[in-house]
Amino acid sequence: MTPNAASSSGPSRRSFLTSTAAATAAVAVGSPLLAACGGGGQEGRKEGATSGKEAAKILPAFVASSVVTPDIPAKNGSAAGFSRAIPTAQLKTSVPKTLGSGGKLKIMSPFWGTPPKGDNPYYTAMNKAVGVDVTWQNQDGVTYDQKLGAVLASSEIPDVVVVPGWNLMGRIPSAVNAKFADLGPYLSGDKVKDYPNLAAVPTEAWQRGIFGGQLRGVPMPASYVTDIAPLYRKDLFAKKGYSVPGSPDEFLAWAKEATDAKSKLWACDDMKWTAFNVFGVLSGGDKALWWNLEGDKLVNRIETEQYLEALEWTRKLYAAGVVHPDAVQGKAGGDAGNRFTAGEVLVYNQNISDWWGKTAEQRTQNADFEMEAFDYFGPDGGDPTLWAVQPANIFTFVSKKASEQQVKDFLALCNFCAAPYGTKEFMLTAYGVEGTDYTFEKGLPVKTQQGVNEVNGAYDYTGNPAPYIAYPDLPEITKGMVEWQQRMGAFTKKSSFFGLTVTEPARWANLADDFEQLEDDVVRGRKKISDVQQAVSDWRSRGGDGLRDWYRKLLDDNGSAD
């Protein structure tokens, strides 16, 4: 699981990269879930990846959007920032004519919560604007992997299917190759220019949409800068006169000083994911990112000294009694954020979107509430070494059985939903119908209760613009988040399989599944570092070295994506 992720709320990118006055739970999109990443080799193969010259032949041309200029341009892999609401009269148009034919599409998608009725004003307005009659087959996001597996194993699948990256396990990757259409004939090279908003999607995100040697998935783009940030109570730090620690040793010393268990105050929650970034551990985004070519040897993250050092430092925090007891008992979940806002912990790590989510939530109750993300430091207090996460981790596919017109209608829908912030199309997609789903209050768009219930999920997955952050209700947080990404991006490296969607051979796909639990046991003192070293030795003998050879051949044959 993502550290401290709330299980009741799903990854809706617009839910935390656009703003309403009411706070909503924010969950990582590019979550560091320890699951096999899916993808494919050449057509007819069930494993591998496509990069280099072969990928260049099928990737869409990139044409940056000039419709709207962000307040804070993207830099060092960051998102672009939009810090103000755009009045309706000033909204731009990115889709000047309806591209859909009026045809019908059935779309299966994960949904967290109670799906709205199909004839609601939001869906009706979207169908009319896009020119496509969409019927949503929303499925429970918590058990979506089970439903997805059953549907893909059947002979009949919906016209369009959303597949989160963390569900690309078992037989699902090969089913993706077998049952979904090649979009290359419609999008490769200059063909994408028929869909200008899709042409503005970064190439590295499209690279992730290559499955089975063909461009099959429309990706949800994301910043490649680590999405897990160490968040701290700036208001309480100021009240107590604390400075933000600048090294692992300083953090431990500060944590001992700050913790007062009798007053129910602890310095931090579980900090394992922060430790991985501090000590320069290869990204945990997906298992392909666990590998990196160091010199002439391909090394897995679990084999590195940095991995052991990160676990040892986290273990020291637990041993010192500075971690909240609920985290000690393994109660990470969504409660870590609640412990943070309640003032029981001063630092926790979570998706950086929580910076806005928790602030918007708390400002309605506590005007003095203030939080920020502090910058990562290296093991010695110097500059950190950070590793890029994947630039897309949710994909939408169209069935091989779909007609040519249905494929075009699907792309028309994706192009509409990929409209940038500051356009009419964006406002409809993200907020719904003005006057029904949202109104303007003090110059800010605010969802009505109907909007909260209906404009939620669904169209989040069928097309997204290049990464952006837009919180017009809290512009200082928009600025803070983008600038944090820019600073951290300056220290971010791309590992050998960055940007590639890789399907591991089935015989090795679950080889490292037990390491997450082992990590948690070690940091809590239930296991020892020596147990990790033994597990790594076992991993090598049970197939890790064979998997290394397979990845090395993949790299030698295809090259990296970067």
From TrEMBL:
Gene3D superfamilies: Periplasmic binding protein-like II. Pfam families: SBP_bac_8. The keyword Transport applies. It is found in: Cell envelope. SUPFAM superfamilies: Periplasmic binding protein-like II. PROSITE patterns: TAT. The keyword DNA repair does not apply. Its main location: other. Keywords: Signal, Transport. It comes from the Bacteria. PANTHER family: ARABINOSE-BINDING PROTEIN-RELATED, SN-GLYCEROL-3-PHOSPHATE-BINDING PERIPLASMIC PROTEIN UGPB. Belongs to the bacterial solute-binding protein 1 family. This is Extracellular solute-binding protein.
